[in-house]
Amino acid sequence: MNAALNTGTAQRAASYYSASLNDQTQYPTLQGTVEVDVAIIGGGFTGVASAVELAERGLKVAIVETNRIGWGASGRNGGQVTGSLSGDEAMRKQMRARLGDDVDDFIWHLRFRGHDIIQQRVARYGIDCDLKRGHLHAAMKPSHMAELEGFATEAMLRGMGDQVELLDREGVRRHLDSPLYLGALKNQRNLHLHPLNLCLGEARAAHGLGALIFENSQVLEIIHGPRPAVVTAQGRIEAKQVMLAGDVYHKLEPGQLKGKIFPAMGGIVTTAPLGDLARQLNPHDLAVYDCRFVLDYYRMTADGRLLFGGGANYSGRDSRDIAGELRPCIERTFPALKGVPIEFQWSCAMGIVVNRIPQLGKLSENVWYCQGYSGHGIATSHIMGEIMAEAITGTLEQFDTFAGCSHIRVPMGDLLGNPLLAAGMWYYQMLEKLR
Ligand SMILES: Cc1cc2nc3c(=O)[nH]c(=O)nc-3n(C[C@H](O)[C@H](O)[C@H](O)COP(=O)(O)OP(=O)(O)OC[C@H]3O[C@@H](n4cnc5c(N)ncnc54)[C@H](O)[C@@H]3O)c2cc1C
């Protein structure tokens, strides 16, 4: 191995998270040739969580990241770790053929497996990421309430009665100083956290276990064969196995992957620190999202700012005025915040899959991929990291359950993918008005 320790020019994406980092480690650019057991392309949660799992199992791993660790959606998201799985109903339908009546247990287990992995990892490696418990899923109309009641009933039946509580309008007002909601499901099992600090902490943990990490190193090509390799402008990693974890940001393997995943842009802002007002607005420090298809989500940061995200833009392009778009939503949610200064705003692409089922598969005998959590990826990426590590080390059961799902591949995806998604979302927004 002769990888030099040069660092590169890739920058962190500007956000509240990158302004409140607690780890400034800069990993080197890949130079020369390196040999490992598993080369992972992409340093978001999927790549980093898989690296920890593999390194814990004793494999020599390398992560290769175009930008910086956590540069993509993993370091710029809402920080809410909830039991919502995008695509759960589609999964249930498709997986029933393989799992039979066990499908309901399998999906329930998936809802909260990621929470356990994250909490154990934070504890084991001492990761400082403002991890907190508590979430409200808030209803804006009676049909939303009916959905929440359905979830609460299942949660009770599955032994979570001490962790979930249905709140009526007055109950919500005791938790949020907002006039918007007629009820909510409070869930003490859900979490919220500083995602970039979690991702960097996990990268540090993987590094401590012997993983190599390269930033500023875009993989340009995957070489398939009995001994696959990934190639960057200045280096090459030869591996026994390769895992592609670039989500919506990579353009690799178009022959097999183009048209399977599409970008939706999400915008987030944070206000100036709110001081005592933060506790008045949200006294139990809960993360919140509402029940709409295109929803608002928010929580307080460790330094008492409101971090608020909402909407999604399916054009695939950045919004020009995120603060302008989100300010009316903030003021509608919390009238006390009229005119509040907004100090950070950013947007980021998330990978959307047509049927919303995470896409796991093989590109050749020893080249794997895992992508597409459709906006609910913090917990899911950690579950997938575990499933991918199991698969790469020879236990294929859960991987096969996902890999056996069929996915729509949009022909001329570059051209048609985002207009189709936009039409789909318009349809769902119309349904939202009717339900
Ligand atoms: C605005 C927003 C809010 C969100 N809020 C939440 C939330 O509150 N809760 C939740 O659960 N989920 C949320 N999500 C979704 C979640 O963030 C993602 O599903 C998850 O982070 C995806 O992780 P990933 O590692 O697969 O992809 P990413 O984090 O996007 O990482 C992919 C990485 O691969 C790298 N890469 C790509 N191509 C190459 C290449 N050729 N060579 C080397 N590296 C490459 C990229 O630079 C990138 O760093 C949100 C997403 C967005 C955008």
UniProtKB/TrEMBL annotation:
Cellular component terms (Gene Ontology): cytoplasm
SUPFAM superfamilies assigned: FAD/NAD(P)-binding domain
Pfam assignment, any one: DAO
FAD dependent oxidoreductase domain residues: 37-390
Keyword annotations of the record: Oxidoreductase
Example of a GO MF term: oxidoreductase activity
Domain of life: Bacteria
Protein name, per record: Glycine/D-amino acid oxidase
